[in-house]
């Protein structure tokens, strides 16, 4: 057991854990952040995607010792029901969630992608960015639309602010 | 009279406030933020971990099971075997032939031999290794045709043929005699995996009052409860199953998954809650799959495109246990001649046991496997005769009131011809030559094809099929609508809220929906068989007038007028003579509460059934079907055989669209699942062992493979349905399968009869389709 400190969704946390425990299990079992899901356990499906220092990674493949002093953001950190991110609202508006089990992973992957660009992505760009996330319900069409409409809305809002 | 009736319907439609609108999902915020709790997301402080010991061999006798070493592990709480089952050691929706824990024989590697509960997941794994099972290994039965032979080793005492169904109509020989063309081919279909993103898992725990709680996603909590009760010899009233939401199901959670294991363990852990959550690898081995079929179809037709005879022999590999295999093969045979009026048919199906895992319910339920025969043959006929493939289908399609290929009069709504008309008029079909010429590389070829199919809504004859809903007025003036049918991803809860708000004339935010909770809701049947919108919707629409009566009576009391003088206005009840006088729902609640009167009403609905069952058919025909036509554009790489689906036009006959966005969610998801079935997906089992392990080697479509999908709904207005709706959740993945197969042919001149149409198979078919001189060169 070791005490490992890192930042999750803006909060500094210290967990007592074997450093080889997967970050996903620490998030779910120690920190009750259950938005991130285990589906394949080997980095094939993206259901456990979190951002580490802004980059999207599969948290089932990251050991908690590796995130010491790093910054982690989960779907809950992108926004909660009370104050949803435009991306999350776009997923609802476009009907991009069905059973919802993969959705938090998609939200994190898409948010990380949108954070890195300043334009409305093409369909091809969205497909490349989200190629590592599996969904069995939606057929993905509405997910592509949701990411594009969130980008549009963010740019419009940015324009208003400027 | 008729035009007036139509006008009334129109007026009624214009007045609809919630029905037909893309109402946003009521569970959307929880889902997109990760706040939605699925069953395995819960935690209990004094929990223990449960694990299942699966069979080491696909077919073996158990000589002994020794748990002494496992029990001695310091972190192990209990180790359970068949000896610890208080009740009936078996489960299975129709035929309970699958042991909860095997006693003397294992029949597939999915079989459970022992259960362990331990302090940590690691300790549970160690304990599984310490259980010593002495097996006598038997030769596995892995081929369906061999399994049916007289001398084959028997998996079950009655032999390896679980069921045999037949449907005959007309005179098959006379039919083929009058045919100008006869086509005969054998098709093989894959062992598709549901690949729900949430693997099977949940909690078993004892309440302080001695009742048992199972929190586990499932597709029929009320039935899960009965299967648990039977195995544990418990009073079902002392078991509460919470089975919603599901992180996807598609039929794969219709059967018992881990509920009985959870229940057994929970009763042996000294009151500590037990959690099981299958790894993907275990889910692949333990979970049911789609039945692989071998289907031989012989179709006879005349020069003018009239189909005159269809002969079908289908053999389904149900693996080691029946589950819903008998029903799957029955539905397959019911649908194997398509939504047509073929006068002479002779169809039979066998459901056969093997040691290849377990097969069961899966979206489409046998129709996916058989539709390829008749649809491929129609396209072959079109090519031979030069007739238009859409015209041939229209010529043979039955209309409402016609006699189907099965020989029964179809009394419910039929939208086939309208879906075909819309297909003929859609851009992709009209301009198919243009789209086919837009190849992305010179060595790639494009093809366009169309196919149509249908799928029964609800259960067939002989299976109970009912819906029930409760509506309860709450203190805050909201309505709690209870329908047991689980949320599985389709958004049925949102549709339930729409139906309730529409019927009660209130804001949708006043509707709170409760699903998948055996304590709070009445048995309303399964989330399967394309039935949940139709059945749950009708049950709510039946309960709503009872609630309106309750509200009206109390409003009349409060306003001091007669019941006939109360009007249901939007979000309130008013005095018909003076609209300034009204009562709110909150006031009505308070008044009823003070009088100790019930605030809850019920509505019940039995699905309409056909009166006469076709002899030996296993429950055919259905009363109600959903119909669907797909048009697809594919591009085939002739150098590698890889096929990409570029465009899909999905044209479902839905009766009535209740929520356009939800409908598109189904057509888009169904199309992509159909693409996976046709092109990539197959769980490979060799000698009874799964070669497929995880998503590394089981490829489902990713976002990169998703095509452009257009949905053009047809509304045939089904009179028995809620606001005219019927079910479509399965048919949305069906005709796309033969459509892709024919589009590959249209592109390359090569036909693939063995699905999935992998690059290797397509490449091979292209090579074989070339003239010999080209190959030898």
UniProtKB/TrEMBL annotation, chain A:
GO terms for molecular function: 2 iron, 2 sulfur cluster binding; metal ion binding; oxidoreductase activity. SUPFAM superfamilies: 2Fe-2S ferredoxin-like (SSF54292), CO dehydrogenase ISP C-domain like (SSF47741). Residues 2-78 form the 2Fe-2S ferredoxin-type domain. Gene3D superfamilies: 3.10.20.30, [2Fe-2S]-binding domain. The keyword Iron applies. Keywords: 2Fe-2S, Iron, Iron-sulfur, Metal-binding, Oxidoreductase. It comes from the Bacteria. Pfam families: Fer2 (PF00111), Fer2_2 (PF01799). InterPro entries: 2Fe-2S-bd (IPR002888), 2Fe-2S-bd_dom_sf (IPR036884), 2Fe-2S_ferredoxin-like_sf (IPR036010), 2Fe-2S_ferredoxin-type (IPR001041), 2Fe2S_fd_BS (IPR006058), Beta-grasp_dom_sf (IPR012675), Diverse_Oxidoreductases (IPR051452). PROSITE patterns: 2FE2S_FER_1, 2FE2S_FER_2. PANTHER family: OXIDOREDUCTASE WITH IRON-SULFUR SUBUNIT. This is Purine hydroxylase delta subunit apoprotein. The lineage of its organism: Bacteria, Bacillati, Bacillota, Bacilli, Bacillales.
TrEMBL record, chain B:
GO terms for molecular function: iron ion binding; oxidoreductase activity. Transmembrane segments: none annotated. InterPro entries: Ald_Oxase/Xan_DH_a/b, Ald_Oxase/Xan_DH_a/b_sf, Ald_Oxase/xanthine_DH-like, AldOxase/xan_DH_MoCoBD1, AldOxase/xan_DH_MoCoBD2, AldOxase/xan_DH_Mopterin-bd_sf. It comes from Ornithinibacillus halophilus. Residues 33-139 form the Aldehyde oxidase/xanthine dehydrogenase a/b hammerhead domain. The lineage of its organism: Bacteria, Bacillati, Bacillota, Bacilli, Bacillales. This is Xanthine dehydrogenase, molybdenum binding subunit apoprotein.
């Amino acid at each position: 057991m070791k005490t490992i400190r890192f930042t999750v969704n803006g909060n500094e946390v210290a967990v007592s854990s074997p450093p080889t425990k997967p970050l996903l299990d620490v998030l779910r079992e120690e920190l009750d952040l259950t938005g991130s899901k285990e589906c394949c356990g080997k980095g094939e499906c993206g259901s456990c995607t979190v951002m580490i220092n802004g980059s999207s990674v599969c948290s089932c493949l990251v050991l908690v010792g590796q995130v010491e002093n790093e910054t982690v953001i989960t779907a809950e950190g992108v926004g909660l029901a009370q104050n949803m991110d435009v991306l999350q609202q776009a997923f609802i508006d476009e009907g991009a969630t069905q059973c919802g089990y993969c959705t938090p992973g998609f939200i994190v992957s898409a948010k990380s992608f949108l954070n890195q660009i300043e334009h409305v992505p093409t369909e091809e760009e969205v497909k490349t960015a989200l190629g590592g996330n599996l969904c069995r319900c939606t057929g993905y069409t509405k997910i592509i639309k949701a990411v594009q409409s969130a980008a549009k809305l963010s740019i419009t809002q940015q324009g208003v602010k400027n | 009279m008729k035009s007036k009736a139509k006008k009334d319907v129109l007026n009624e439609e214009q007045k609809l406030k919630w029905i037909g609108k893309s109402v946003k999902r009521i569970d959307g915020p929880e889902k997109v933020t990760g706040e939605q709790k699925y069953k395995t997301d819960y935690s209990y402080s004094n929990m223990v971990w449960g694990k299942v010991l699966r069979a080491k061999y696909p077919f073996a006798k158990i000589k002994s099971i020794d748990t002494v070493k496992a029990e001695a592990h310091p972190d192990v709480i209990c180790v359970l075997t068949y000896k610890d089952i208080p009740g009936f050691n078996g489960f299975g929706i129709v035929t309970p032939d699958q042991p909860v824990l095997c006693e003397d024989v294992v029949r597939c590697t999915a079989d459970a031999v022992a259960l362990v509960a331990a302090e940590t997941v690691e300790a549970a794994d160690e304990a599984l290794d310490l259980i010593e099972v002495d097996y006598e290994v038997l030769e596995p039965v892995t081929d369906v045709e061999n399994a049916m032979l007289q001398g084959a080793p028997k998996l079950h005492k009655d032999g390896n043929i679980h069921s045999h169904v037949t449907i005959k109509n007309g005179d098959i020989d006379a039919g083929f005699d009058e045919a100008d063309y006869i086509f005969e081919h054998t098709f093989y279909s894959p062992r598709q995996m549901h690949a729900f993103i949430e693997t099977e898992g949940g909690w078993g725990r004892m309440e302080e009052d001695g009742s048992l709680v199972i929190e586990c996603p499932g597709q029929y909590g009320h039935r899960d409860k009965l299967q648990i009760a039977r195995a544990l010899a418990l009073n079902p009233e002392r078991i509460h199953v919470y089975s919603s939401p599901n992180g996807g199901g598609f039929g794969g959670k219709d059967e018992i998954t881990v509920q009985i294991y959870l229940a057994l363990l929970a009763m042996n852990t000294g009151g500590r809650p037990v959690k099981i959550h299958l790894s993907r690898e275990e889910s692949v081995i333990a979970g049911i799959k789609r039945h692989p079929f071998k289907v031989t179809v012989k179709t006879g037709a005349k020069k003018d495109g009239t189909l005159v005879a269809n002969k079908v022999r289908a053999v389904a590999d149900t693996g080691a246990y029946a589950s819903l295999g008998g029903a799957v093969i029955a539905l397959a045979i019911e649908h194997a001649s398509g939504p047509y009026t073929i006068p002479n048919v002779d169809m039979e199906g066998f459901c056969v046991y093997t040691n290849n895992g377990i097969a069961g319910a899966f979206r489409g339920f046998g129709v996916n496997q058989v539709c390829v025969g008749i649809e491929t043959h129609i396209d072959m006929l079109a090519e031979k005769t030069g007739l238009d493939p859409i015209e041939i289908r229209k010529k043979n399609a039955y209309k409402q009131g016609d006699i189907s290929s099965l020989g029964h009069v179809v009394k419910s709504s039929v939208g086939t011809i309208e879906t075909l008309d819309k297909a003929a008029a859609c851009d992709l079909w009209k301009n198919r030559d243009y789209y086919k010429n837009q190849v992305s590389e010179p060595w790639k070829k494009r093809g366009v094809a169309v196919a149509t199919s249908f799928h029964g809504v609800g259960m067939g004859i002989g299976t109970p099929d009912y819906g029930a809903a409760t509506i309860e007025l709450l203190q805050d003036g909201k309505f709690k609508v209870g329908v047991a049918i689980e949320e599985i991803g389709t958004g049925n809860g949102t549709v339930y809220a729409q139906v309730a708000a529409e019927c009660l004339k209130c804001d949708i935010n006043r509707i709170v929906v409760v699903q998948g909770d055996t304590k709070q809701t009445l048995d309303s049947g399964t989330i399967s068989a394309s039935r949940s919108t139709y059945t749950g919707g009708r049950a709510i629409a039946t309960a709503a007038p009872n609630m309106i009566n309750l509200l009206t009576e109390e409003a009349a009391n409060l306003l001091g007028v007669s019941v006939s003088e109360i009007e249901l206005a939007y979000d309130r009840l008013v005095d018909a003579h003076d609209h300034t006088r009204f009562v709110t729902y909150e006031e009505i609640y308070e008044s009823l509460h003070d009088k100790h009167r019930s605030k809850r009403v019920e509505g019940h609905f039995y699905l309409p059934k056909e009166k006469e069952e076709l002899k030996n058919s296993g429950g055919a025909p259905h009363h109600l079907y959903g119909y669907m036509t797909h048009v697809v554009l594919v591009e085939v790489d002739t150098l590698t055989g890889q096929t990409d689906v570029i465009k899909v036009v999905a044209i479902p006959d839905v009766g009535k669209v209740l929520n356009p966005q939800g409908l598109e969610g189904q057509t888009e998801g169904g199309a992509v699942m159909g693409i996976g079935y046709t092109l990539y997906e197959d769980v490979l089992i060799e000698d009874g062992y799964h070669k497929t392990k995880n998503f590394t080697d089981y490829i489902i479509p990713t976002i990169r493979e998703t095509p452009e999908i257009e949905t053009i709904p047809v509304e045939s207005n089904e009179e028995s349905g809620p606001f005219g709706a019927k079910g479509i959740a399965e048919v949305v993945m069906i005709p796309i399968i033969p459509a892709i197969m024919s589009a590959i042919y249209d592109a390359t001149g090569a036909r693939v009869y063995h699905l999935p149409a992998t690059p290797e198979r397509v490449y091979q078919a292209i090579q074989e389709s070339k003239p010999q001189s080209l190959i030898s060169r």
